[in-house]
Amino acid sequence: MRFVLLAAFLVCGLVACQQATWESTMAAAQHAVQQGNYAEAERLLLVAVRKAEEFGLHDRRVAVSLSQLAQVYAGQGKHVEAEPVYLQALKIYQEVHGEDHPDVAATLNNLGVLHRMYGQYAEADPLLTRALLIKERLLGPEHPDVALGVANLAQLRVAQGQPERAEPLYRRALNIREKTLGPSHPEVAKTLDDLANVLKKLGRREEAVSLEVRARELRAARS
């Protein structure tokens, strides 16, 4: 009995040690990202992936590590490297959580943004739309994460040359952010500028200028 308890203690100690090592590696990678040292962050995250795999190839920690690695790839403009890593993380998240989960929505959103950045609008559209639908189901129609999803879809519409479809999306994102973040939040000012840009494309310059003035006033009030 004493041997069994000792063995169990050693196993638990090993798992705790592995967890601490994985966490410390992830923390170091995040610090490298904050310092703008993407090469070091990439190296550390590759180590973190290997450490996470010690818990099992389909453990959520593997997906977390992969997601961070994909973001670092994307931040360096490595689209070819980032996409399959995001897809691998997405597969694990779906296996662990099912289809309706914040991790799944976030990864779909990141994949959609990645495709948009590289002009792959047909691929980006269903990903961003699906991510938004999941967020709405989980969080309700008025939540900051929903506003982010709406704004990302609006940005895609602008990139597609469809400002008339982007306008109602930006207005919805603005309304949510004003309600949930407060009228003076930086994201409100950013959304005002984005909406103003759309209005200019639609030939409504006077409306656009008034929004830009409001955005500048918000920023000045916070400085």
Automatic annotation (TrEMBL):
Keyword check for Repeat: yes
Alphabetical keyword list: Coiled coil, Cytoplasm, Cytoskeleton, Microtubule, Motor protein, Repeat, Signal, TPR repeat
Domain of life: Bacteria
GO cellular component, one term: cytoplasm
SMART domains: TPR
Alphabetical list of InterPro entries matching this protein: Kinesin_light, TPR-4, TPR-like_helical_dom_sf, TPR_rpt
Gene3D superfamilies hit by this protein: Tetratricopeptide repeat domain
Protein name: Uncharacterized protein
Signal peptide: 1-20
Gene Ontology BP annotations: microtubule-based movement
Lineage start: Bacteria, Pseudomonadati, Nitrospirota, Nitrospiria, Nitrospirales
Locations listed in the record: Cytoplasm, Cytoskeleton
Similarity comment: family membership: Belongs to the kinesin light chain family.
Transmembrane helix found in the keyword field: no
GO terms of molecular function: identical protein binding; kinesin binding
